[in-house]
UniProtKB/TrEMBL annotation:
Entries under SUPFAM superfamilies matching the protein: PLP-dependent transferases (SSF53383)
GO biological process: amino acid metabolic process
Protein name, per record: Aspartate aminotransferase
Family that this chain belongs to: Belongs to the class-I pyridoxal-phosphate-dependent aminotransferase family.
Length: 411
């Protein structure tokens, strides 16, 4: 449009803007909130809920709040708190005794939760490797392609899930790693893969790591659910530790939205493992520059909460316990849902409900079946059949099982 046409039509600036498509996950929450049926269930967003279906404020968070109450943080510079957060977060990912934690070879920055950490890295990747694509598992969290696409990074996929076995398609995954151009970026979910709940075994991670070395690929780990797969924070970081042992440089996005129940506070960490301390200083300064232009600093309250929880041994021990409680409740709901469906004499095999791990069950329900669950039973989930098991409770599990049975029994 020429300037003169613009001048003629002063209300025409946004005429070409049509509505964006709804986000598949936040769209489910909106539909759930608008429903007034008392039996409604939200299995959409992957955020933890207690056995009453309510969001949880962990006791460790309450304790941390008490510790920081009244502290003079409203206007202070977030840098010192951010460094503490980074120092503690990288111990969670790479291991508290890992040499890289002490050697100063990690370039780490506090980030706006997991999404912000991914976005920062995507921008950094484009700045220094503009031609390199990033490979995502198929399927992956639907926001991954959005994030990297918005950063102008070419986006590709590698095979991951096997729909028939509802498990890992390991052979196809290895083929795609081998066939990708050398020195490609790969996004890996180190535990509790979203949306499938399917993780490689330690042995398979070793093979993946070996092949990454052969191909000089760069592993970028998106750690959004540490603790939810096994209930144990270290166990859930085993993939990262295996890659570390194998001598890779690694990128890592960590989120405290789910495992600390701090979704609304947007606390996360981005770390990039570098070849030496000098390189780490350079990489960190570039990341800081990108963040400075995008949003300057993250809000400080959530940072203080997380750094307090992670650096105070008593509060940290309480958090470790609470993570286990959350993981166990989800595990319990997996067993109960599967048993309930089996008791109803469902003609389908529901083994995968207990075989898959973490927040999600990739149920195998078709989009039409999901639509029926929404329409007839007020049960909300994404149309790919992903169920957030955190939304299942002792009191809604039999209603849920009946509804699933109803929409699947004649298929
Ligand atoms: N990575 C993965 C794999 C992931 O599932 C999420 C969120 C994020 C990063 C982002 O996390 P955050 O720290 O909130 O920025 N997933 C859930 C929530 C959402 O989509 O916002 C979900 O899949 O439901």
């Amino acid at each position: 449009m020429s300037t003169s046409t613009k001048a003629l039509n002063r209300l025409g600036w946004w005429d070409r803007v049509s509505p964006a498509s709804k986000d598949p996950i936040t769209g489910v929450t909106e539909a759930f909130l608008a429903d007034t049926n008392p039996h409604k269930i939200n299995l959409g967003v992957g955020a933890y809920r207690d056995d009453e279906g309510k969001p949880v404020v962990l006791q460790c968070v309450r304790n941390a709040e008490a510790k920081i109450a009244g502290c003079d943080f409203m206007e202070s510079n977030a840098t010192a708190v951010g460094s503490k957060l980074v120092e503690e977060s990288v111990k969670l990912a790479y291991g508290k005794d890992a040499n890289v934690v002490k050697e100063g070879t990690l370039a780490g920055l506090q980030a706006l939760s997991g999404t912000g950490a991914c976005r920062l890295f995507a921008e950094f990747q484009r700045r220094f490797h503009p031609e390199s694509p990033i490979y995502f598992p198929d399927p992956t969290w639907p926001n991954h392609p959005n994030i990297w696409r918005d950063a102008q990074v070419p986006v590709r996929t590698f095979q991951y899930y096997h729909p028939v076995s509802k498990g890992l398609n390991f052979a196809a995954l290895m083929d795609d790693i081998k066939n990708a151009p050398d020195a490609s970026f790969f996004l890996l979910h180190p535990c509790a893969h979203n949306p499938t709940g399917v993780d490689p075994t330690a042995e398979q991670w070793r093979e993946i790591s070996y092949q990454f070395k052969v191909k000089s690929h760069f592993p970028f780990f998106d750690v959004a659910y540490q603790g939810f797969a096994s209930g144990d924070l270290d166990m859930d970081a085993q993939a990262i530790r295996i890659f570390l042992e194998d001598g890779h440089l690694i990128g890592c996005a960590q989120s405290f939205a789910k495992n600390m129940g701090l979704y609304g506070h947007r606390v996360g960490c981005l770390s990039v493992l570098c070849a030496d301390a000098k390189q780490a200083v350079a990489v960190k300064s570039q990341l800081q520059q990108i963040a400075r232009a995008m949003y300057s600093n993250p809000p400080i309250h959530g940072l203080l909460l997380v750094s307090t929880i992670l650096s105070d041994p008593e509060t940290k021990a309480l958090w470790v316990k609470e993570v286990k409680v959350m993981a166990n409740r989800i595990q319990q709901m997996r067993s109960t849902l599967r048993e309930s469906l089996e008791k109803l004499a469902s003609p389908l095999n529901w083994e995968h409900i207990t075989k898959q791990v973490g927040m999600f069950c990739f149920s195998g329900l078709t989009a039409d079946q999901v639509d029926r669950l929404v329409r007839e039973f007020h049960i909300y989930l994404t149309r790919d059949g992903r169920m957030s098991m955190a939304g299942v409770t002792t009191s809604n599990v039999s209603y849920l099982a009946n509804a699933i049975h109803e929409v699947t029994r004649y298929n």
